[in-house]
Amino acid sequence: MSKASRYGRNTIADKLFLLGEVTLLLVASMLASYLHDKYLFAVSFEHQLLNAVLFAASVMLCALSVGLYDQKLREGQKGIIKRVVITLLFNAILLELIVFQLFPSLHIGTAYLAGASALAAALLSGFRAFFHYHDITRISRRRVLVLGAGERASIIERRMRRSVDKRNFDIIGFTPIEGDKDAGIPSHRLAHFDYKNDLFQFVQEHRIDQLVIACDERRNMLPVEHLFKCKTRGIDVIEILDFIERETGQIAVNLIYPSWVIYANGLELNHAFKTNLDYKLNVVLAVLMLAVTWPVMLITALCIYLEDGYKTGASIFYRQLRVGYDGKPFYIVKFRSMRTDAEKNGARWATENDDRVTRVGRFIRKYRIDELPQLLNVLSGDMGFVGPRPERPEFVSQLAKDIPYYNQRHNVKPGLTGWAQLKYPYGATAEDAQEKLKFDLYYIKHRSLMLDLMILVRTVEIVLFGKGR
Fold first, then answer.
1. What angle do CA 41, 42, 43 make, to 5 degrees?
2. Which residues form the Bacterial sugar transferase domain (predicted)?
3. Which domain holds residue 348?
4. Which end of the chain has less Cβ packing within 10 Å, N or C?
5. 279 and 346 in one domain?
6. Do residues 405 and 439 lie in contact, with contact meaning Cβ atoms separated by under 8 Å?
7. 280/240 same-domain check
8. DSSP 8-state symbol, 126
9. Which of 235, 215, 243 minimizes the C-alpha distance to 148?
């Protein structure tokens, strides 16, 4: 991930939070191994320490997979405790059934793991309750002044109203600039002062950390000398496109201009990586997934057949034409989740609570089981594990006309899951397609092996909590 992306996330509070959780996990493990040593059998200190590090790393990986490190997680205390418990159950399965089977010399005992998990559950739940109750993130929030109060600036006001959207910053105000169009920003949010002559003074008096350039008309409107002086004094000056990208994990399509696309960092990627290493990794993952999920696929196929397949003779699979890499069409393979006459009146978007979906289909769509046959598309090279979801040609032709830069999502191979699925899990309209495009373009700009792995881990949360459709 780029330097710009890291900037908004690597706050002091984030570091304190992670350090606190790592420390508590190490304490839970060491205390459990101490009790195991005292009441069962002795374990060397080196063995205890190695297990503590392994336990902490494994728990944090599992926590990531269930969304506990999602900065915009909106859960009450009960929801947090539920996710913590699921995290530790996953961790126990990972360690007992995989890690300790591969490296039996590391195993202290089942009693140790049970004790460490119970202690970790109590410590993590209490720590998170304390951390969020006292809103410790405020100690490192940037103080932001937005230069602009028109249509462009109003995007920040609309998109970042909730406190969860502003974990890393506080907006001190929006400064009206000549040429701004009236966009209805509330008057109490406006910062009125002589920005052409007093900008630097205002920044100093109000301890501003960051200036966001968001005016509707820039030419000869900005006080360049003041901005330069602010920049040389350590004040961050950033364009609204980069600010939104940094804070929301999406690219504001409606604000993009051609020169930004051409000169922006991060849109290029070594071709050999995507064509060689990327394909090999996808094939290995697909084979492993097939080896693990074939019982689920077999049961799903049987359920579809028993529900309506044996009556109608319809296939348990569904093949549909989609647009792939470089705009080339291919047939996607899924478990059939709708009635056989679902499109007798032509192609249309699937909707929430769609009456065309069968009973079995409703369940497998919710937990994304219907997507499993697409592993065959991965093996054939038409898809990867991570990338923008492929869309139907009937919709692509219209969306490309209505949405700027829509076809840019075809510059990478489509995927089983993607950044848009993590950030915007349901979409069934052209407006939803535009919202997802913002996340798809962010992924295309920042794609890397590490980002792909993070998306794959986080996809567990979508499947586990039924966020598919």
1. 120
2. 281-464
3. 271-464
4. N
5. yes
6. no
7. no
8. H
9. 215
Phi, psi torsion values for 211, nearest 5 degrees: -110, 130
Query: Which helix H or strand E contains 211, and what residues bound it?
Result: strand 210-213
CA distance 144 to 162: 16
Q: Are residues 106 and 218 in the same domain?
A: no
Tell me, letter by letter, the H, E, C secondary structure of 260-300: HHHHCCCCCCCHHHHHHHHHHHHHHHHHHHHHHHHHHHHHH
Could you tell me if 53 and 18 lie in one domain? yes
* Cα torsion angle, 365, 395, 332, 268, sign: negative
Question: Over the stretch 375-429, which tens digit does the pLDDT of each residue have?
Answer: 999 999 999 999 999 999 988 988 888 888 898 899 889 999 999 988 886 666 7
- Residue 256 in domain: no
Which ranges of 40-76 does DSSP label H, i.e. alpha helix?
45-65
98: in domain:
yes
What domain count does the chain have?
Answer: 3
Q: Which residues contact 268 (CB under 8 A, 6 or more apart)?
A: none
Q: Which residues of the chain fall below pLDDT 50?
A: 1-10, 270, 272-273
AA identity, residue 234:
G
The identity of residue 454, as a single letter, is M
Amino acid found at 186 = P
Asked if the structure places residue 17 within a domain, the reply is yes
The dihedral formed by the CA atoms of 9, 11, 15 and 16, expressed in degrees to the nearest 10? -140
pLDDT in tens, 309-338: 888 888 999 999 999 999 999 999 999 998
Alpha helices in 96-235 (DSSP H): 100-102, 110-133, 151-159, 195-205, 224-232
Is there a contact between 246 and 7 (Cβ–Cβ < 8 Å)?
A: yes
73, 107, 136 - which closes a domain: 136
Count of H helices and E strands in the chain? Answer: 20, 8
Q: Within a 13 Å sphere around the CA of 13, how many CA atoms are in the beta-carbon half?
A: 18
In this structure, are 193 and 316 located in the same domain? no
pTM above 0.85, yes or no: no
| Torsion from C-alpha of 14, 9, 234, 220, nearest 10 degrees | -150
